[in-house]
Amino acid sequence: xxxxxxxxxxxxxxxxxxxxxxxxxxxxxxxxxxxxxxxxxxxxxxxxxxxxxxxxxxxxxxxxxxxxxxxxxxxxxxxxxxxxxxxxxxxxxxxxxxxxxxxxxxxxxxxxxxxxxxxxxxxxxxxxxxxxxxxxxxxxxxxxxxxxxxxxxxxxxxxxxxxxxxxxxxxxxxxxxxxxxxxxxxxxxxxxxxxxxxxxxxxxxxxxxxxxxxxxxxxxxxxxxxxxxxxxxxxxxxxxxxxxxxxxxxxxxxxxxxxxxxxxxxxxxxxxxxxxxxxxxxxxxxxxxxxxxxxxxxxxxxxxxxxxxxxxxxxxxxxxxxxxxxxxxxxxxxxxxxxxxxxxxxxxxxx
Amino acid sequence: xxxxxxxxxxxxxxxxxxxxxxxxxxxxxxxxxxxxxxxxxxxxxxxxxxxxxxxxxxxxxxxxxxxxxxxxxxxxxxxxxxxxxxxxxxxxxxxxxxxxxxxxxxxxxxxxxxxxxxxxxxxxxxxxxxxxxxxxxxxxxxxxxxxxxxxxxxxxxxxxxxxxxxxxxxxxxxxxxxxxxxxxxxxxxxxxxxxxxxxxxxxxxxxxxxxxxxxxxxxxxxxxxxxxxxxxxxxxxxxxxxxxxxxxxxxxxxxxxxxxxxxxxxxxxxxxxxxxxxxxxxxxxxxxxxxxxxxxxxxxxxxxxxxxxxxxxxxxxxxxxxxxxxxxxxxxxxxxxxxxxxxxxxxxxxx
DNA sequence: CTGAAAGCGCTAACAC
DNA sequence: GTGTTAGCGCTTTCAG
Lengths: 351, 351
Fold this sequence. Notes:
The first copy, chain A, is an alpha/beta fold. The first copy, chain A, has 12 helices and 13 strands. Chains A, B: InterPro entries: HTH_LacI, Lambda_DNA-bd_dom_sf, Peripla_BP/Lac1_sug-bd_dom, Peripla_BP_I.
């Protein structure tokens, strides 16, 4: 950690009053109302006055006050986006999808982060709603009663994203994580693996990882296979955790022939570890992760994974909000299920 | 990409009018003003009425309207945070630092993303300032004239972060990327490397990477060394890019004995590539990256890197904003320089 | 095409 | 302790 070296200087703020419409009005000799019209490109204003106003506004450096505007117009062009984490590799993609769509509209995303903590979700949601956004996009389909109540009472479009295994407050876009787990389980069984180990995040925090695990065990059970060993982690560098957990698990249960990880990052750690050990992948041990993160493209072996449609989920969610705002009474799809694709890569099919 | 299966349902919104203070006032039989006081924990209110109000508010599900509150009180407890990217591995850390500090205050961070595009920075800044935030934290120390003008005119605390090689609008917290590059150059020269290759992002977009490069070449020049080859990329999976660029560069300039990468992710790609090729690291080729990302802990070799003090920068920036808000006239440090530490890892010192 | 009046929902400042 | 009055800076609405 760096220490700090300081250069002392007195810094005093010029006690400037922020400019108002009135200032522009006076500077341009045009009524406030007309100035407002020019600045919003609304109604008909003669070319002459328009230019006069624009020039005055620019010269003064006027920046409109959205607080006042929003209060007067009863419209706030913000969409609250509530997600568990930013350092996740998955939500930046969702955000990109959302931003891309909203860029063509008046709407702007504002993000809140919950760290997977329900209490924090409640708080963030409350703060968000108190700004009276036009819509909310929120990750996950399980929320506290209080959160659901707030969302319902808000009277604005609410899109729950990522997961569709449950009952949405309003509407939902995502994949079925249960189904995703099942697909992976089937693929593993079909490939002939029999001794499966599972590694993932501590479940209570992450409903989607839990559902994938449930889907996996269900599908394996049908093939007469039980998960032979499992381990959960929280916090820390995922890549390093993947290594550690893999080492520990193989130490404990040496006869495993397949390892399923709840995310690609720990899977990558596991892969690197096994490669170091000189293990033959996938003939000796097969591997799979989840998410389809771009990172994987640079790994020594193409890792089996499943794309979570993150980007598409972001786009669709933003489209939904924007559509519902444009046509509040239109009939829409309450639940939009996206279907992830399974990439076998080089670690799931024996050669 | 998943296609979508849809369940049609008519979803109509109950045409609810959002609740106001007046509703709570009527429901509790207490004046609006007193309700307001209770909800903000301000002034003296008797225990009896306080409870009555709270009960009514909770029963109705009242969520205060911050738009109106902000307009009336002329205070907006938001701090605008403007950064180039979220998918970067570096800014989430900065955000964490900021959030941690702001959590103990009334202030809340609101982020805007510029994608390293000056025009977008201007737009984001304009939008941000139109909400009249209490302060701004903005990445980088180079901004367009228009952006600087807006920041100066805003009359609020502005903290420029990450980089201190330049003249801040108001104050700055960061490291000297020039110095960081220089340190790395010295270390490389001292370790006895002589044929240096550089790989990084396209410079015009990333001032900090450019400054590190300048520092590097300067230090190497003093040791009589020139950068023997260099290559720049933009976009794509950084890990894969690191592989590709490394392959291409060694193909072109096979006698390189050291590779310096402008970020850890491409460095990691290069490392994996070289290891695949069976190259002896660091005796045949040495390596270094930049950032000190956690990811590195799981790599097969501990990569040489330099910590950019991201977390600490976030903390300090938030503290600065919060302090200046508390004591606007206090004399403060205009520039706070943090000092990155160089980790030699296992790729920079020959054995 | 332009302007005047009336609030949006809340809080500061002052009475009681 | 509690209530009253007047705005915050803008937009809506309606008149010219």
